[in-house]
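Incident log, support desk, overnight shift.

02:14 A customer reports that sequence design results differ from what the structure should imply. Their input is reproduced verbatim below. On-call engineer (initials T.W.) acknowledged and began investigating.
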């Protein structure tokens, strides 16, 4: 069974769930750059899910994979159906016009008129439960969680591949699939507990987020991070003490992995959601009880979430008193370049092949 090497350096990512707009600009940035070819229609290497919800693929948190007690834990194979097939709108029905632009017999049914590749109505899609909350009014809640490959320190995908087609780069810890070696067995899809690998049924290979390595090698932040209008995506080397990634993970300890218990030592971290306080039965604010049940946050981000939330609240209070907080300054992200640990080169400046080349 192949093992990942101990790398020289590790790139890492932090997502601040409190600032996410749920706009999926990140998702589209990745789609337009990496996954627009045939056979990749249902690939969303970046996806932002509404929580609590069943996720992408459906019921991802119950699909297994990864490790428990350092032993391999069996995982289910995610299918195109559970990820959600690529579907399109029936524009004639949505707009109420036919191809000639004349009024159609349907007259338009509104934005729920879909065209499913296999016919009929779609039953699942990425982020199917967008903006569906939990809890009872007036204490309802939901939040967004952003997913890409975690470029794990102990990648279950790599260990599961009998062809040794998955490797982890020594210089930056990026986990990549060698598409020439891949035979399409899909053991990696079963093994990854985050279900971040997709199968290309036309090319018969597994494919996943490459952490935009061709951009990163030229000092440009990944597309999904650079395009985020919420400025909540942070990127850099985990051992670079000047990077905000280091400060959020190691110094302030407010950024935590998703389901650390799945055993792969992920290198994507989350600033957990600070929901408003609950209203009590007479409509007053109940400062003892947050709206998002802390048990649920512990399930997702581990027991350190309590301390992370306490730190966030304490630093917010400081700024309310007019004091300066390094942590709040980082999370506000006044200057976008500060988010990217030195990977702030303009992609428009990249060397491009010329006709002569
Ligand atoms: Fe592999 Fe999954 Fe970890 Fe990515 S998130 S490195 S695909 S185990
Ligand atoms: Fe896609 Fe690059 Fe973001 Fe990975 S890092 S999800 S490849 S845009
Ligand atoms: Fe959230 Fe940024 Fe993605 Fe929009 S682009 S969904 S704000 S992470």
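02:41 Re-run completed on a clean worker. Output:
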């Amino acid at each position: 069974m192949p093992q990942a090497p101990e790398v020289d350096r590790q790139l890492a990512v932090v997502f601040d769930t409190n600032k996410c707009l749920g706009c999926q600009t990140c998702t589209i940035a990745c789609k337009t750059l990496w996954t627009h070819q045939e056979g990749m229609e249902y690939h969303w290497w970046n996806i932002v899910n509404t929580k609590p919800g069943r996720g992408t693929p459906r019921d991802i948190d119950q699909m297994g994979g990864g490790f428990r007690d350092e032993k391999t834990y069996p995982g289910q194979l995610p299918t195109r159906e559970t990820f959600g097939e690529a579907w399109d709108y029936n524009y004639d029905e949505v707009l109420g016009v036919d191809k000639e632009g004349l009024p159609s017999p349907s007259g338009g049914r509104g934005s729920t008129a879909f065209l499913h590749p296999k016919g009929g109505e779609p039953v699942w899609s990425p982020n199917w439960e967008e903006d569906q909350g939990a809890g009872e009014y007036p204490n309802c809640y939901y939040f967004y969680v952003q997913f890409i490959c975690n470029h794990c320190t102990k990648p279950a995908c790599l260990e599961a591949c009998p062809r040794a087609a998955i490797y982890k780069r020594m210089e930056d810890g990026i986990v990549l699939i060698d598409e020439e070696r891949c035979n399409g067995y899909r053991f990696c899809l079963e093994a990854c507990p985050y279900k971040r690998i997709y199968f290309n049924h036309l090319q018969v290979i597994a494919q996943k987020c490459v952490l935009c390595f061709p951009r990163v090698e030229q000092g440009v932040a990944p597309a999904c991070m650079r395009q985020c209008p919420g400025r909540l995506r942070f990127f850099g080397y985990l051992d670079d003490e000047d990077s905000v990634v280091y400060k959020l993970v190691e110094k302030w300890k407010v950024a935590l992995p998703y389901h650390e218990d799945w055993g792969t030592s992920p290198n994507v971290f989350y600033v957990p959601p600070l929901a408003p306080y609950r209203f009590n039965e007479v409509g007053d604010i109940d400062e003892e009880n947050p709206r998002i049940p802390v048990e649920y946050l512990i399930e997702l981000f581990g027991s350190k979430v309590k301390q992370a939330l306490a730190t966030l609240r304490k630093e917010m209070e400081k700024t309310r008193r007019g004091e300066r907080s390094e942590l709040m300054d980082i999370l506000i992200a006044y200057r976008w370049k500060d988010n990217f640990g030195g990977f702030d080169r303009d992609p428009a400046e990249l060397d491009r092949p010329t006709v002569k080349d």
